[in-house]
């Protein structure tokens, strides 16, 4: 027998089919696919719509001053999880469609994660570090449990049972390596291990998704940042188990068992993965953070699928020995690319934002909500571009895998770029919360000499109060300051409330809470910096051409014209967002000197205001051009609000400055000038628990100011018409004159907060015009605003008129209170709900009457 030369077998081709050929599996029909599409749309609608609606409801409750129930988010997430899990579970049980069953299984697991992780939202937002730690632990446990169940399912499937045709091209459920050795389904090969560049490209993609947050956002404290990184890593780990090799293999074959190419894996697998990641993202992060995660994580599904297509390729050096068809489902998936991609995508919102700051309270202007939306939008665009680019590059059926060093180099380049953006264009550094440590011992101000009446007597009282407060703080804080120095913790001492602000996290808080000298530790939250300054809020209205209705309603114009009193000789202090010192209505009334302006937030050396709230309120009290009640009075200012939020430490900074002003850069303990204290303080702000205050946080401060003879006026709040809505300090304190708001019809406005206070006291004390009030705004313009903030400076201006008319009344806080109440006129209660009785909890003693009050003060 003649033999010719032996022709080598072409290993690039698939092995010949077995004989006799296996019958083709029956097609399941279109209905399982249709059901999967409907369930997917339902899952996205429930998760996205539910989370957005829940956040909006929570924000409305916050603005309305209603406490959010602890069960609100856990119950809502459990309901959403159930609504997704029920149809997903039905999909997971459909017969004869491996892809649909796999789809249902992934969505079912994600829904279970949403329900479980959502329970952690019962942890208050103020304990963000505790939430992150608990979430990381729960994610790790869920990952290990899910992985164990996956492995058990595969063992059951392959222990003596035939492998489904859709998962293997070989009749025995195995594929043949070039060595001739079979590899069982789920086994590892070199393409998914050290030789694959997929992990490098995944890291590059994840860093690209993180880059907008590194530019726009800012990190929190050290522990918070470490926990955010750990939580993001746990999210990526869980996602890699959720979207494991078994998941990706289901989209590499058609319903009839024929091998499918890479495009099917990228398009179909990426879409199903995106829905699963959307359901998972709904449970990641505290309220507000999860909204950003919902935008970013699902959009990474297509890139994750493309990376799986790449992970299943042979390296170029092994291409000629390949015995498989790329995208045929013969090779297992790789967990590392999905873990890196999803983990880095989740890191941005977790680490670079504070959930408390994505709030309706900061919605106006380009503040945190705006920039968080920009960062999420940029990440979404990057994710979609990556999905398109990676999909086109990696889904080609017979293309060789690039060298591993290309993926590594790409990741290194993107890492350098991200770090450069963070350092050069971002807000580098740590910007965590601080602590206000309140000591047990507070100064005893009993028996402060009332002595001489009028300005001289008032100055003596301020000086005595200042000296007692400082002496008590210096003595009682000595040991604690030494301990803080020993542990190298930065701190700022206070005397108005015997307290110390400490730059520390949860560990420092736990230690300080057990200190012998400490009564309690409060949070003093600070807003993280922005990539650009918030635009100045300006007014577009012209100056009034005649006396506005609000001034004529209380008779201020009659005081000027008939009684010849305009507030001359009186100084009013305004603590707020700042003051535009160049505004025509205010510039000539600034007291001047080196101790009339203080900005503890930004350290500005001259009066300025970007928000406009402080300019508007102070001008209503002392402004010229027919906008101020007491246009002859002068003013001093302090910034206690930064971008419309404050904290107890910054409120104390300004109140200390008002008690004993000090020059720029001076020490409040040693450089205070109590004789320069303003006589009256107008305060259109409140400190809710969100900002770190508890009911008694500022109580020693207002008591000390009253003992010093300084008249303290505060806004009731804008959370009406609910009964008991006067609940934020300092409006609740008995030595603070609390003011509600009325409209043109003398009716209490719906937004004006009602009493009683939490301790049962009747509040407000009086009402004043607070709807549609025209006053000054930064830049020289004017605007009409609503709020009890607008009503409060009316009363401060009336007191300035009273004390200007009768200087002997200066410092007589009790006498002035009595006159204001006795001369008030009737006001309509407005739409006050039942249960606010007596009616004084709506309108107090009535509407302030400047003309009658000044006349009474002269007697």
From TrEMBL:
Residues 156-171 have a biased composition (Polar residues). Residues 14-26 have a biased composition (Pro residues). Residues 1-26, 154-194 are annotated as: Disordered. Residues 567-828 form the Peptidase S8/S53 domain. Belongs to the peptidase S8 family. InterPro entries: Peptidase_S8/S53_dom, Peptidase_S8/S53_dom_sf, Peptidase_S8/S53_subtilisin, Peptidase_S8_Ser-AS, Peptidase_S8_subtilisin-rel. Keywords: Hydrolase, Membrane, Protease, Serine protease, Transmembrane, Transmembrane helix. It comes from Micromonospora sonneratiae. The chain crosses the membrane at residues 34-58, 70-94, 106-124, 130-149, 198-219, 225-244, 265-285, 291-311, 332-350, 370-393, 405-425. This is S8 family serine peptidase. Pfam families: Peptidase_S8. The active site is at residues 576, 613, 789.
């Amino acid at each position: 027998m003649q033999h010719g030369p032996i022709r080598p077998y072409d290993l690039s081709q698939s092995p010949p089919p077995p004989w006799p050929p296996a019958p083709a599996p029956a097609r399941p029909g279109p209905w399982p696919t249709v059901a999967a599409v409907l369930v997917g749309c339902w899952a996205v609608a429930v998760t996205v719509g539910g989370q957005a609606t829940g956040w909006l409801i929570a924000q409305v409750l916050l603005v309305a001053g209603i406490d959010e129930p602890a069960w609100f988010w856990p119950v809502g997430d459990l309901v959403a999880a159930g609504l997704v899990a029920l149809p997903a579970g039905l999909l997971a049980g459909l017969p004869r469609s491996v892809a649909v069953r796999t789809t249902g299984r992934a969505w079912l697991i994600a829904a279970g994660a949403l329900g479980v992780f959502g329970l952690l939202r019962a942890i208050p937002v103020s304990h963000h570090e505790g939430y992150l730690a608990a979430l990381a632990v729960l994610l790790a446990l869920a990952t290990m449990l899910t992985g164990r169940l996956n492995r058990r399912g595969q063992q059951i499937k392959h222990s003596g049972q035939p492998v489904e045709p859709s998962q293997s091209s070989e009749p025995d459920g195995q594929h043949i390596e070039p060595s001739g050795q079979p590899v069982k389904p789920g086994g590892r090969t070199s393409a998914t291990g050290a030789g694959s560049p997929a992990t490098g490209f995944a890291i590059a993609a994840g860093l690209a998704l993180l880059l907008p947050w590194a530019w726009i956002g800012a990190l929190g404290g050290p522990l918070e940042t470490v926990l955010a990184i750990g939580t993001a890593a746990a999210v990526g780990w869980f996602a890699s188990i959720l979207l494991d090799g078994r998941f990706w293999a289901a989209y590499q074959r058609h319903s009839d068992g024929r091998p499918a190419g890479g495009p099917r894996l990228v398009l179909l697998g990426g879409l199903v993965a995106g829905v699963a990641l959307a359901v998972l993202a709904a449970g990641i992060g505290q309220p507000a953070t999860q909204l950003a995660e919902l935008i970013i994580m699902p959009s990474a599904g297509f890139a994750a699928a493309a990376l799986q297509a790449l992970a299943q390729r042979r390296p170029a050096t092994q291409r000629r020995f390949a015995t498989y068809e790329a995208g045929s489902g013969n090779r297992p998936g790789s967990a590392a690319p999905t873990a890196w991609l999803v983990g880095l995508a989740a890191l941005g919102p977790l680490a670079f934002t504070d959930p408390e700051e994505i709030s309706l309270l900061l919605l106006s202007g380009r503040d945190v909500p705006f920039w968080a939306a920009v960062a999420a939008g940029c990440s979404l665009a990057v994710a979609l571009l990556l999905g398109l680019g990676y999909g086109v590059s990696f889904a080609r059926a017979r293309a060789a895998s690039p060298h591993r060093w290309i993926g590594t180099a790409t990741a290194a380049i993107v890492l350098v770029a991200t770090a450069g953006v963070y350092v050069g264009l971002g807000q580098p550094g740590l910007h965590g919360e601080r602590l206000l440590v309140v000591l047990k011992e507070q100064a005893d101000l009993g028996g402060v000499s009332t002595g001489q009446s009028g300005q001289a007597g008032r100055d003596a009282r301020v000086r005595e109060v200042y000296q007692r407060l400082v002496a008590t703080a210096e003595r009682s804080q000595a040991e604690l300051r030494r301990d803080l120095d020993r542990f190298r913790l930065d701190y700022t001492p206070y005397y108005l409330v015997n307290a110390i602000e400490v730059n520390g996290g949860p560990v420092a808080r736990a230690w300080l809470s057990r200190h012998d000298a400490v009564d309690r530790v409060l949070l003093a939250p600070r807003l993280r910096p922005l990539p650009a300054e918030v635009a100045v809020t300006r007014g577009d209205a012209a100056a009034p051409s005649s006396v506005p209705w609000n001034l004529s309603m209380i008779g201020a114009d009659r005081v000027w014209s008939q009684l010849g009193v305009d507030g001359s000789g009186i100084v009013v202090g305004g603590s707020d967002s700042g003051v535009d010192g160049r505004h025509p209505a205010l510039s000539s009334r600034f007291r001047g000197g080196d101790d009339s302006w203080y900005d503890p937030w930004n350290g500005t050396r001259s009066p300025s205001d970007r928000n406009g709230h402080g300019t508007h309120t102070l001008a209503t009290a002392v402004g010229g051009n027919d906008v101020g009640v007491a246009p002859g009075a002068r003013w001093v200012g302090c910034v206690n609000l930064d971008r419309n939020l404050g904290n107890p430490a910054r409120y104390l900074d300004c109140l200390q400055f008002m008690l004993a002003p000090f020059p720029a850069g001076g020490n409040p303990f040693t450089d205070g000038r109590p004789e320069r204290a303003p006589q009256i303080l107008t305060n259109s702000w409140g400190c809710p628990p969100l900002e770190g205050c508890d009911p008694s946080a500022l109580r020693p401060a207002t008591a000390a100011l009253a003992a010093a003879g300084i008249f303290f006026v505060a806004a009731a709040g804008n959370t009406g018409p609910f009964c008991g809505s006067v609940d934020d300090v300092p409006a609740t304190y008995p030595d603070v004159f609390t003011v509600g708001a009325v409209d043109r019809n003398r009716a209490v406005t719906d937004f004006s907060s009602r009493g009683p206070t939490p301790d049962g006291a009747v509040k407000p004390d009086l009402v004043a015009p607070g709807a549609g009030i025209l006053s000054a705004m930064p830049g020289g313009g004017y605007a009409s605003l609503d709020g009890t903030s607008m009503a409060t400076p009316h009363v401060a201006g009336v007191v300035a008129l009273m004390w200007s008319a009768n200087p002997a009344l200066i410092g007589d806080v009790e006498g002035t209170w009595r006159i204001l109440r006795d001369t008030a006129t009737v006001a309509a209660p407005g739409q006050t709900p039942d249960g606010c009785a007596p009616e004084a909890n709506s309108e107090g003693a009535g509407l302030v009457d400047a003309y009658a009050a000044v006349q009474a003060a002269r007697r």
